[in-house]
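Dissemination and training. As part of the outreach component of the grant, students in the summer workshop were shown how a complex can be specified as a set of sequence lines and then modelled as a single object. The example used during the hands-on session is reproduced here so that future cohorts can follow it. Participants entered these lines:
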Amino acid sequence: MNAERPDPDQLLARVERDQAKAKRGRLKIFFGAAAGVGKTFAMLLAARERRNENLDVMIGIVETHGRKETAALVEGLEILPPRKIDYKGTVLHEFDLDAALKRRPAIILVDELAHSNAPGCRHPKRWQDIHELLDAGIDVYTALNVQHLESLNDDIGQISGIRVWETVPDTVFEQADEVELVDLPPDELLLRLKEGKVYLPQQAKEAVNHFFRKGNLIALRELSLRQTANRVDAQMLDYREDNAIREVWQVSDRILVCIGANDLAERLVRAGKRLANSLHAEWIVAYVETPELERMPAIKRDGILRILRLAEQLGAETVTLSAPEMSEALIDFSRERNINKIVIGKPSRRGWRRWLMGSVVDVLISHAHNINIYLLGSPQLPDRNDLQSELSLFKKSPLPGLKQRIQSKTKKRYSGYFWATAVTVLSTAVDHLIFGHLELANLVMVYLLGVVFVATRFGRGPSVLASVLGVGFFDFLFVEPYYSFSVSHSQYLITLLAMLIVGIVVSNLMINVRSQAKVASHRERRAAALYSMSKELSSSQSEEDAVGIAVKHLHAEFSSPNVVLFPNNNDRIVFPNQPALAQSFRGADLSVAQWVFDHNEIAGQGTNTLPGSEAIYFPIHNEDKVLGVLALLPINLRRVFLPEQQKLLDTFLGQIGQAVARIRFSEQIRSTQMQMEAERLRNSLLSAISHDLRTPLATIIGSASAIAQDNGELNALDRLALGQGIVDEAERMANLVNNILDMARLEAGVLELNKQWYPLEEIIGTVLTTLQKQLSNRPIKVKLPKGIPMIWGDSVMIEQVLINLLENAVRYTPQGSELEIIAEIHPSSAEITVADHGQGIPKGQEQQLFEKFYQTRHETAQSGVGLGLAICRAIVEIHGGNIYARNRAEGGAEFVFSLPLEQAPPTVEPEE
Amino acid sequence: MAKTDPMIIVIEDDPSIRRFLRTSLSTHGFNVFDTDTGKQGIIELGVRKPDLLILDLGLPDMDGVDVIKAIRAWSAVPIIILSARNSEQQKIEALDIGADDYLTKPFGFGELLARIRVALRHSVRSQDHSQNDVFITENLRVDLINRVVSLDNQEIRLTPIQYRLLTMLVKNAGKVLTHQQILNEVWGPSFKENAHYLRIYMSQLRQKIEANPTQPKILLTESGVGYRLKV
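and obtained this result:
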């Protein structure tokens, strides 16, 4: 029963696919075996039908090649003016993608799916233009010949002897919503060709004639029919999936394609693709970097990069494995990933060498029992140059720095041979000294020592030289007959052979060890780079910080200046506000960045979109949301495009995306918290105002109305008492309002401190004068340092602090109890204490006291709003000081605040 | 009596404050005219030639400071300004260009009366060109002719600057003096930036004159604005 039910994950994927499809435009491909079968004609016919259905149909670009019947069909249809591109003096007419996107017809005709755009267009290939049209929700009609299909390209090249270099990834074909096969029997096609109804490019007439042989045409027709049939098959499978008809449910296959740095690599990739397609399997292309392969010239290694890139384009996952032995790495990887099919080239070693040294294939066969292995033989390929031009990526490499590197390597190698000679000569000299005193075998040991030394330091070549030279010298000088290379005893031959083998084995071992160490150190460096960046990123507090860290680390790791760009509020990518760093890439192309941001796809050099731009643009995203764009100017191509580096870059980008998202998220939380705090304050303020303003108002209005409505009942004394009540309450209200306003001003941060030097005495004097009335029945003790102690600050504000502290003390201590003001001046700060003899502060509330709207006792007649101490704290803090409260040992509370003295207090010269 | 009643013009845009000033000042024997704009106020001033002007600094039609400037161009009438809290800079500006005193809203009526009396007294004195030769307040006696300062009839010694400072305050007794005004008069215009000089000397003076310098009775501080000698 269970098996009957479709897998929910698959169903979900299906629904998502359908949804994405519904939004996207529909792609219809008119598919044919060869030029001249009438694809364009069929396409135009279909377009006219759609137009007759009153759909908004237009021609994006269609080549009629001067055929009358076709031209007649074009008439009456709206045609998009082509984009004219001046390329090396000739004007090329290209499809105008931007105009089409702007015009937004319901259906657009774009002929020649495999067409390559002229340099300067957004995408190098037309199918990419079409991709964008579909993304924009526009339906597209296009035409394609079977020979342009990527995976068939190779086979057809072999059948027909002609390779086309304009190819279309199979995925485009597979993902088309409709494929209409335009079929014409070969005989009819040949007839049309004879009648001149088939357009042939002038320059290749002969080759094309060769192409239009009947045998070829039959093969091509078969291929195109088979492709279409495959599609129908796939549709059938889809249908089955949908309807839970799954008795033939396959265990999903996983194919591993192993490539090496040889000509076979590309064919292996294509074969893998075909196999994966026919089996509906996942496929992975692996390249094992063994120490041996690491020693290959850079140009060959760059070739591998190209192949891996091609594989990615064909839909494969790519990995670069690093191990001493290819077979071992492949077996481990296969186990890890559940690979059940391996595609690999036929062993290149033949005969005795294969027998002696084994081959990867033999090891695989003997170790991987449950894996099917497919071997691909090396063919006689037509022309390698064609292939090279097809892989247009990285045309610019090898890199400028490369030549130099090779030269310096060569130099090192020559110096190795020099040292090999020198060491042998030295060994000979030593042997010469001990010759006659010791057995000949020991002389050999000295040479062997030399060979081992050379092998460890300079590698195989020099060690072989050292062995040969050593054997030569030994034979010539120390073995009878002397001064001749003839050997009397055959046993010395074994000596020679042993020396040679030891030299080679040791040097091979050393080389392996060294390159393993190199690989390990590379890996370690990458891990370290990643670790150090993520560590720094995780502690970054602001977006600017994170970006700065990212730019620095990206530069350090990829040796390329780069810049992180973010969109403004309108989702337009803009240049950053903060100043550029030394590692920053200046002059990023915002329009490319914008495209990347909008499409969440990589663009720029070495990619499929706008490959003409000098930099590469990567989207930075977290989960599904694109946050920004990284523009990187690849100075060092190898550091950027090596698969491991690409993966590292991906990880870097992920980390950056995460960091930025985290920072934004925490900022969001912070602002939410601030809003909540503001909300809380507003509530407190409202309750404070409703209580603390209404109470005095009640008295004022009551008393004032009593006076206003007096008909002579009130005597003078009553009136005086009422008046005094009004004054007192009004003053209390004024105080409250002042406090609220002060707090608002302090919080708005608009205050400009008027900091000056003030004698403490004067400040305290002003405060005590202001509070004369409240303090009338209070003994005040003031303890100041001797002389004229000065403090640095805004006098009005500091007075406010003291006033609030004293008022607070008066409010919360019994009438008549003494208050103290104590000041101490330290070299860099002044400390002022207001102490009382009251009940002290309730335990644990020492900090809360300074919160806004905080009161120890609620709603008492004497209460204020609870702003006094909050104002004190705010004032002291903007002065750079601090304030705290505590209970005194002898009873009562004390409030202490300190103010920093930013410089030495001024003095005046005495006059007397 | 009506003829000699001092005349006061009030320029204030708030009607309640105008009404309160008119009512309370009239009952205390002043002849009060009020207006709500600076322009009208200046005209009234020219027509009525009052003994004193009460001016609100925050007027709807023009800046109070500009009103003072316009008036000071041709009249020496004492001006008391009314200003909001936390506007020390505005007060100082007004005082420096010729206002005589200030009151911060909200203020008590008693305070206002005291300020009016001081201002009127100074204005009378400057018209007389006569100076009191001996000034006495609390236990302090300053003999300006003989340059003798005594406290509780005990002569005290002052340095030349302390003496100059004290005499300036004495000559303007009861009036607020800004830091700038004092620095300019006692030290000269080049000392304008050295307000701490003034404060240190004021402290020295207090330690010589006041019984308790932290609770001054004579040399009062006008926070953020300047000093005032109590009368």
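Chain A has 30 helices and 25 strands. Students were then asked to discuss how this feature might be tested experimentally.
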